[in-house]
Each structure stands twice: as structure tokens, then as C-alpha cells.
Amino acid sequence: MNRKGYLFWIMAALLATSFLFSTPVFAGDIKARMKSRLPKIVQLKAKGVIGETNDGFLAFVGAQKAEQDLVAAENEDRKKVYQAIAKQQGTSAKVVGQRRALQIAEKAQPGEWLQDAGGKWYRK
Description:
Order of helices and strands: HEEHHEE
Helix content: 55-70%
């Protein structure tokens, strides 16, 4: 086998390995991180510190900015999830986020802050 053929097979094996092993682990990592943050997010929503935006992300509702790192991490993972779903469905991450926001609003608890389509905050 010549050098080009050898390099081709090495690259193909590396790409296949990275695809087969990194994608499920990556998705599992996101799911685990989001699950571990959920109790704190529920608490922050119940206290009225954060709410759900109309594009499927968390935002601070008032002046109190408790747990900024947690909120930023959750939003970053949501962004990755929305991008993956968008790619799979042939749409944009923005559309996926907006659809998710509607689902979240339906399941929101009374008293939680939500953002309407125009960007105005309201309590459920």
C-alpha cells in the first residue's frame, strides 16, 4: 500500500471512531449536565429569579442575578441541543428554540415567569 492509501485509511478510521464514540458521549454529557442543574433551575424559577424566554432560553427577570454561571451553562447546552435538532430536522436552531419555548410554557408552573412572542414578561 502506498503512503497516500495508508494515510487515507488512518484518517477514515479516526473519523469513524470520533463519530461513533464522541457523538453519543457528547449527547450523554449534555443530558447529564442539564439533569444535574434542573433542581436549582426549578428553585430559581419558583423564586422568580429567572424565567423562560420566547426563544427557549433562561433569562433573569429582575435585578437579582443569582447563579449566573449556572444559567449561562444551561443556555449554552440548550443552544447545542437546539442546533443538533435543527440539523436533524433541516431547520434553524432559532425555530427549534421557539418551538421548545411553547412546550415549556405549556408545562410551566403557576407563578413562573414566561416571555410572550413580543418579548413581554408575564407570570403564568
